[in-house]
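WARN retry 2 of 3 for item q-0093 after timeout on previous attempt; input resubmitted unchanged.
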Amino acid sequence: MLLVAGLVFAYYTTWAILLPFFDASSPIHNYFPAREWAIRLPAFVLVLGLSGIGFFVGSTIMKENRKKAQKAKLRAA
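OK item q-0093 returned
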C-alpha cells in the first residue's frame, strides 16, 4: 500500500506541479489527462469522502438516539 501511495503521489505531483514547465508539444503530456482534472478529481474525492463521513456520523447519532429513547421507554414502563 505504501508503494501504491508513493506512486500515486509521484504521478500527481508530476501532473499538477511539474507538467506546466514542459512545452505543450512535449511527449510527456501524452501520459497525463488535461490539467483541469488535476483539480476536479481531488475535489470530487474530497466531497465524496466528507459526504461519507457525514453519513456515518449522522447514522451513528440516529442509532444512539434510538437506543436512548428505547431505554427511556423501558424505564418508564
